[in-house]
């Protein structure tokens, strides 16, 4: 469960996801000219099969006016196109979900890895 951060945030006003996305998209547009320089950005709704969507910043394209996540474009450039850990991303009627490691997870998520989550090669001798 995430802790309450009221004591930490008293002096600083929290920024909502839409404002955060606008600020980041304005920064990203300096690196990616395809993005609208006005910095129009948003937080997309949660998608069950694609847990990264609600935690990825979506920016408006200059050419089409549509929104997309520049996460692959910025992957090797050092810019982080995701909302910070702890950003609210979904409510399923019972539980709140928050961004954790770029994925929208329930607040009681423990982070245990299953064999399906392992992407590294397993040390198995081949015959």
What does this structure look like?
The protein has helices spanning 6-9, 17-31, 71-74; strands spanning 41-43, 57-60, 67-68, 88-91, 96-100, 103-106. It has 127 residues and is of the alpha+beta class. The protein has one domain. It has a 3-stranded antiparallel beta sheet, covered by helices on one side. A 3-stranded antiparallel beta sheet has the order 4-5-6, with no helix packed on it. β2 (57-60) and β3 form a beta hairpin. The protein starts with 5 loop residues before the first helix and ends in a 21-residue tail after the last strand. The model has no long low-confidence stretch (mean pLDDT 85).
- What form results from the Cα inertia axes? globular
Q: Could you tell me the mean pLDDT?
A: 85
Order of adjacent strands in the largest pleated sheet = 1-2-3
Report the biggest beta sheet as strand number plus sense, adding barrel if it closes: 3 strands, antiparallel
Output the structural class.
alpha+beta
Count of structural domains: 1
The percent range for strand residues is 15-25%
Helix content, binned percent = 10-25%
Strand segment count: 6
The secondary-structure element order is: HHEEEHEEE
Weakly predicted, low-confidence segments: none
């Amino acid at each position: 469960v995430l802790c309450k951060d009221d004591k930490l945030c008293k002096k600083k006003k929290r920024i909502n996801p839409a404002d955060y996305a606008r600020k980041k998209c304005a920064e990203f547009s300096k690196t990616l000219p395809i993005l609208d320089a006005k910095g129009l950005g948003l937080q997309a709704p949660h998608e069950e099969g694609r847990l990264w969507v609600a935690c990825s910043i979506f920016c408006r394209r200059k050419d089409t006016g549509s929104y997309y996540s520049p996460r692959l474009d910025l992957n090797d450039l050092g810019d982080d196109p995701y909302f910070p850990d702890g950003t609210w991303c979904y409510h399923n009627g019972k539980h709140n979900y928050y961004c954790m490691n770029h994925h929208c997870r329930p607040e009681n998520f423990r982070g245990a890895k299953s064999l399906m989550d392992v992407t590294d090669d397993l040390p198995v001798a081949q015959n």
